[in-house]
Every structure is written in C-alpha cells, then in structure tokens.
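Run: sequence + manganese (II) ion -> complex structure.
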Amino acid sequence: MKLALFDDNRLGVVTAGDLLVDVTDALPGPHDPDPLTAGWWRGLCRDFASRSDALRDAAAAGPARPLADVTLHAPVLGPSKVIAAAMNYGEHVTEMHAVQERTLGGVEAWMMNFDVFLKSPSSIVGPGATVTLPPDAVAAGHEVHHESELVVVIGTGGKDIPAELAMDAVLGFTAGLDITVRSPADRSRRKSYDGFSPLGPWLVTADEIGDGSDLDIRLTCGSAVRQQVNTRDMLTPVPAIVAYASSMMTLLPGDVLFTGAPPGVGPIAAGERLDMTISRIGSMSVTIA
Ligand code: MN
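>> structure
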C-alpha cells in the first residue's frame, strides 16, 4: 500500500494511475491535522497490521482523485528521531577520501566506518520543497552535498531487534535526501538544517517491497545523473541497520531511518533542481535556493 500525507495532513492511499483516495475517515477518532499532536500517525505506524484492511477497503471504495489535485507532504509526522547510516556503500567510502581531502584538508579515519547518527526531525520537508542553502555554510565557503537514500519508516519498532525479525518492526520505505554540509563540524549539526531531509513522495509498505534489498536509486540534477545504485550494494542491509540501531536506542513507531549514501555525492547550488527516483517507490523533486 502506498500511504501519503496530503493537504491538511490527511491520509491518502495512492492507487494505480497516479490517483489518490482520501482514507482519513477510515481511521479511528476525529482527524487531527496538527503535526505537533499528530499521534494518530505514530499510532497508525504501530498498529498498521490491524488497520490495513480498513484502509484497503476505503481505498477500493474511492472516490479517487488525481494526485495533481493535492499537495503531498513528507510521509511521516512527528517522528521521535531521524537516524541515518553512514558509509554503507563501498564506492561511497572510497569517494569520501577525496571529498574529505578537498573539504577538510585530510581524511577523518573515524568517519570512514559504518555507523549511525542522528539528524533533527525538524529538517524534514516534503516532495517539491525548496531547500535553502544555509547562509552560514555558504558564507564559510563550505560545499553542501546531496545524498539520495532509501529511507525506512519504523512500524512497531522495539529495542534489541534481531536482524531476522527486523522487517516485522518496519512499516515501509520512502525516498529521502540527506543533505549535508561538508565541514569539520559534527554530523548532527551539518545535516540538521531546516529542509535538509526531504522525504517522499509517499511511503510504500514493506509487504510490497520486501527488505529493500533490490531497489534502484537514481538522482539527477538537470540532465546529469549524479547517483545511480541498486540497494543490493549496501554493505549493511536494511535488517542489519535496524538491528544495529535498535541495539542502542529504542526504535519508536514512525521513526525515520536513512540507509546511507550511494556513490556520487556532490555539491548543490542555488537554482538547481534535484530529481530522485527509487524503483517500486516513486519520484520526488526538490529545488535548491
Ligand atoms: Mn547520508
């Protein structure tokens, strides 16, 4: 099922042919459009298994409207945290030596290992967003890079989740950009500016995608293909990332997990448009200002 948040934070199911059905009324309770109190979304992430039939029925009943008639938002609301994996594709690890030589004047050995870190949830924006380059980074001459990544949305979550059970704790997948300032500062600072976590265009539940290990990610900037990879090339696959992250912090329903940058990271500039596609999920664009 393709779950979308749209307009006044209503819940939609995207159906064949670029159509959307408003299924908000199939949820229990009155609709709460306030993103600050939208526990209904985290409840849906936790309880999706018991609510999916009602949503599927509502989607089938319609009416469907063209996606072009609604405004899509990021397919998450109020996550307790945004976790992100570092150094999860071999060719990206290799390219980061040159990137760090250029942007840091040397290679930071500790940053070359696979690990997870945190981004601010307030950095999340939706598909079609305009992302403004941070004035302090621009003034300092730092490069700001795109990283186009498969993103996991946590379902039931938990602590110390074994890899073989990890997909039971996952709701689904979306596409995300982990926008990053290249500077000597901490990752959490460099990746948490407002707008630095575009997500979209919707969430595809894991029953349609499996464990996310055979998806094509492609990012273009104008006519140039910047990043192109299949997720089978991840060094640490999705279930193992979930297991690893949950070994240190409880994964709560609705949490967001970026799975790492493919090779091809590079600078973005004002006026550019990034188009990102993940097979079997969808496409989104963001404009840089
Ligand atoms: Mn990243």
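>> summary
The chain is about 20% helix and 35% strand. The first strand starts at residue 2 and ends at 6.
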